[in-house]
Amino acid sequence: MMKRRKIGLVGAGQIGGTLAQLIGLKDLGDVALIDIAEGMAKGKALDLQQSFAVSGHDCVIEGGSDYGLLKGCDAVIVTAGIPRKPGMSRDDLLKINAGVIKTTALEIKKHCPNAFVIVITNPLDIMVWLMQQASGLPTTHVIGMAGVLDTGRYKTFLAQKLNVSVQSIDAFVLGGHGDTMVPMPGFTTVLGIPLNHFIDKGKITQKCVDDIIERTRNGGAEIVNLLQTGSAFYAPANSAVQMLEAYFYDQKRALPCAAHVKNAYGVKDIYVGVPCVIGAKGVEDIIELDLTEAEQAAFHRSAKAVEGLIHDLERLNI
Ligand code: A3D
Fold first, then answer.
1. Assessment of whether the complete model's pTM goes beyond 0.90
2. 230 FRET partner, CA 20 to 30 A, in 82, 197, 268, 303?
3. Among 77, 87, 85, 86, which Cα is nearest to 34's?
């Protein structure tokens, strides 16, 4: 008999709540929703449980502030942390969120050391690095969500411009999350046909592709400015669920994720966005590509930014 899966969600904010809903509606398993704001975790759990009763989904969802709820989880998705507030320095934010990740890492190690862990908390690449270091979980089982979301944004804008379904577009982004992300137009295709063909045929201009890349890089900020409070949460949650499904269903799906790179792309022992294969063993492979000089330089800038943050953590004694 197959046991029901259990998914721990640390952080019951915008993304955490959306994740819980998606997991329930997709019948991926039971949910433990944990947040320092106990009432919010309990309240959202109760609301969602009642919503599952309406749609006839069997997901059992518990909420609270006790990390003991993580016991028996097969996977954990971490969104806990605070956003940067006015007047707060980058170091302040790094310190606070690093503290949250460290605590969470130790609790995961204690309650569900065999879980597959997906980190979403920003600053992403360094938070996922810290999660692995502090938990001691295998690098195959600690991964960060960013590339799937960034790729989703890139594909959205391209599909709109080319007037084709997003389903026909294949693409990925490389490098760290945020300003240093490296979209890869050279590896973008529509029905397997390289994007360059569409530029040659006048379906889209190079300038337009460049603008789309820029808009993708600023995709998070664009939504923050529109929402006024908070940041994107539907697409980030959907992206993490895609990674979770690849693991649960042993899809061996190639996805761009913040993964541990032991020695590839000219970097060693850091977490950075690379195309990886996710299956039942976690991160089963990292796909290495021959990059152009410009792509390699952009990737290095991205990796350097992550290394800089590792030094910041040491400097701040974290
Ligand atoms: P939000 O709605 O603020 O939820 C975060 C939750 O974490 C809040 O409910 C807090 O109460 C909770 N929390 C804070 N400290 C703790 C703690 N010590 N233990 C347990 N819970 C705690 O944010 P959100 O859901 O919109 O975003 C969550 C995170 O994801 C933020 O760090 C965002 O910056 C980040 N994010 C990353 C991406 C990427 O692509 C990497 C995209 C969007 C958001």
1. yes
2. 303
3. 77
pLDDT digits (tens, 9 = 90+) for 75-128: 999 999 998 777 778 788 899 999 999 999 999 999 999 999 999 999 999 999
Q: CB of 121 closer than 6 A to ligand 1?
A: yes
Pick from 35, 177, 229 the residue to mutate for probing ligand 1's pocket: most ligand atoms within 8 Å of its CB.
Answer: 35
Alpha helices (H) in 73-145, listed in sequence order = 90-111, 124-135
Kindly give the distance from the C-alpha atom of residue 213 to the centroid of ligand 1, in angstroms, as a whole number: 26
231 lines ligand 1 (CB under 6 A): yes
Order of strands, sheet of 30-34, starting from the edge strand that comes earlier in the sequence? 61-64, 30-34, 6-10, 75-78, 116-119, 142-144, 253-264, 267-279, 282-286
Q: What is the pLDDT of residue 223?
A: 94
Which residues does the annotation mark as catalytic? 177
CA–CA separation, 16 and 35 (whole Å):
9
The kind and range of the H/E element at 77 are: strand 75-78
> What confidence tier does 246 reach under pLDDT thresholds 50, 70, 90?
very high
- Are 238 and 195 within 8 A, CB to CB? no
Does residue 28 contact residue 7 with C-beta atoms inside 8 Å? yes
